[in-house]
Request: fold
Amino acid sequence: MRRRDFLGAALVQAGALATAHSASRFGLGNFVPAAAAPLKPMAVGVLIVPAKGPEATISRVKELGMTNCFLSLDAYIGKFTPALADELGGLLQKYGVTATTAEVVGPGKLVWNFEDGPSTIGLVPRDSRAARIDALKQTSDFAKLLGIPQIQTHCGFIPENPRDPLYDEAVLAIQEVAKHCAANGQHFLMETGQETPTTMARAIKDVNQPNLGVGLDTANVILYGKANPVDAVDIIGPHVRAVHAKDGKWPTNPMKLGDEVLIGTGIVDFEKVFTKLHKLGYSGTITIERETEGPQQMEDVKNEKVYLERIIEKIQKSNA
Reply:
């Protein structure tokens, strides 16, 4: 997955599920999350980068007719303050938008390909591991001030071989972050992509923390050549607590990821994926992530929202 600039520069150009009444490592903000109306199961939302213009970004979520968003917060690493919590929290309340999940993937070098990805992405690489664990803890503390109940990241190319020393190290790193999130009343989610669903399921078992779950990116498992998302749900479905709706194609060039494409034009069978998740009792949100830029990005998101909502409505009616 290439790094996203979703609803950030493009937008500038063109919830309260946990308490915020407790201290974090950087103190208390004044913002107190109001009781938000429960989100509908599989409500469609969108991934945003608020650092690219907080009010323009959050207001556009509302303009798109969405009730929720997923926050990508890498630009704020090392800058999480009570004042920022007040600003973002106030804007979310002003526009009636619920932030469901917060994510960071940095700091440090990130190369989203098969050559340098294994040594730069996630909690697996030793050189960047400590800094990323710290960034995730900072994000968890900050998200608690906003009442955000889930923290998500890419854990990286977790080794297929459980005897690889990096495997045990990754498990311990994930466990450390999961325990920190648990202390803040949050789930910690591993975003799919660099590892096979089987390896992810093994890691979840070995980490052995009840608050550890999966952020299913429907395209990433394809872009990395790891699985078809329909089949992946059979393996990790019970652990899925968040979904990135994204479409893509297989990597035909073995040195580069597959292509992310407009939802409905790739090989993701969203109806089958959502049907399986619905049968498993998934009631979380569906977050659109479109990795293009400029005005066309907004048109794509509008069309993707309609496409996904038709499928979701069909599934929910047929299983009522």
